[in-house]
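Possible race condition, two jobs.
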Amino acid sequence: MKMLLFPLLIVVVGVIYGLVGNDLAGATMLLVFAGASTFFLWVLVPTFEHEGNTAPIDEDFTFPED
């Protein structure tokens, strides 16, 4: 849950920016960035430790010569 503080901070900045600066486009971009960051942190970060080979290694493979 601690990792979601960064997107929450971006949401707070986006809301304050939208209210104080009267710039809807900039506030919208900040809120979309916060959503994308939330998706990345919530879905992808927990899988970082599970990386490995994507296919079995063929020990008999040789690179073709040009």
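Job #2 (started ~2 s after job #1):
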Amino acid sequence: MMKMMVEKKREENLLKKIKIMKTKIIASLGLASFLLWNCSNQSVNTSKMVADELTMQQEDGTISLRLSNAGHYNDVVNPSNNTAEWNVVFSKAGGYKVWLTSATKDTVNLKYTTSVKVNLPDSQLAAIPECDKIIHNSSDVNYPYFRADSFMGSIYITEPGEYNIQVISDKVMPVDSENQTVTASDDSRLVALLIAPDTK
């Protein structure tokens, strides 16, 4: 009788362990399914992760960084995280002014709704670009756009070398590199970042 009770208790314990194991397996499969689904619907499209080549500083000290030459990170869920990235060689230390170049149809209002962030060596600049300079008939943009330059701020490079520079904005959009037209229609678009020596 005692032996039967012990056997029955063992059988009950074994059934409980099997039930717990089944529950854990089902929960693990559910979690794995969720993670696979979440990864397949990932918001970031990393179409071009790293800039193809180094951008060198010109003889006059300027550095022109066109979006068409940048590495891109495009976030379809939150476009304000879209990022353009360049690897840049500064051959001269010193102070620099940072300008953002946009193509615009409206020469009064660029219609940026969020701040543009510029990550530079040892600093970050952030501003909503304004029409500080308008350049008519610029070869940098095609009709019906005008070129607008917006002052973002100043930086200081302590020593020459290779640096990574990023622009983060919803205006960082995929660009057709042949004719420099955006794939989505808009009144204004980001074209380039210009870094120039601060001559005061």
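The mean pLDDT is 80.
Logs attached separately.
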